[in-house]
Design goal:
The protein has 149 residues and is an all-beta fold. The chain has no helices and 13 strands.
């Protein structure tokens, strides 16, 4: 999509019993899943997928999306993150990577730590600059909820 925008296609493959299923995820057009984590709560397993998009020479978007398998089908309608706006199945932000003073193909800035069950990402100022401050969501047993840093 132009000289600097990258386009990715993601194939999601999952197994239920002996059957393996695959689907092309077109809902994130232009974004690439880069890491997948499992979160087990009781007898329920959730899949947390981090993703990124290179939208222009310097503009980048990143997020985390939660999936589960319900009634034999993969679903992304997992409202496990509690925000001021209500429950959601994903967190997303975009920023100007040039202003972040980093390499366009460098590491993503959103981090999920499975040991302490936290999602951490930088606060982005109105001018799309990444600040030195971070937002953290911690899994409390029922939801990921924002904690004070």
């Amino acid at each position: 999509m132009g000289g600097t925008q990258h386009t990715f296609e993601s194939v999601i493959q999952y197994k239920i019993g002996e059957k393996t299923f695959a689907m092309v995820d077109t809902s994130r057009g232009g974004y690439n899943y880069d890491k997948l984590y499992m979160l087990t709560v009781g007898n329920k397993t959730y899949y947390l997928a981090t993703y990124y998009g290179i939208l222009s020479l310097y503009t980048r978007g990143e997020g985390i999306r939660i999936f589960s398998i319900e009634n034999g089908r993969l679903t992304d309608k997992v409202k496990l993150i509690k925000t001021k706006s209500g429950l959601t199945d994903e967190l997303y932000y975009s920023y100007d990577q040039h202003l972040a003073n980093s390499d366009i193909m460098g590491e993503v800035t959103l981090v999920y730590d499975p040991k302490v069950k936290t999602i951490t990402f930088p606060i982005v100022a109105e001018n799309m600059w990444i600040t030195d401050n971070y937002i953290t969501y911690k899994f409390t047993g029922q939801y990921f909820e924002r904690v004070k840093n």
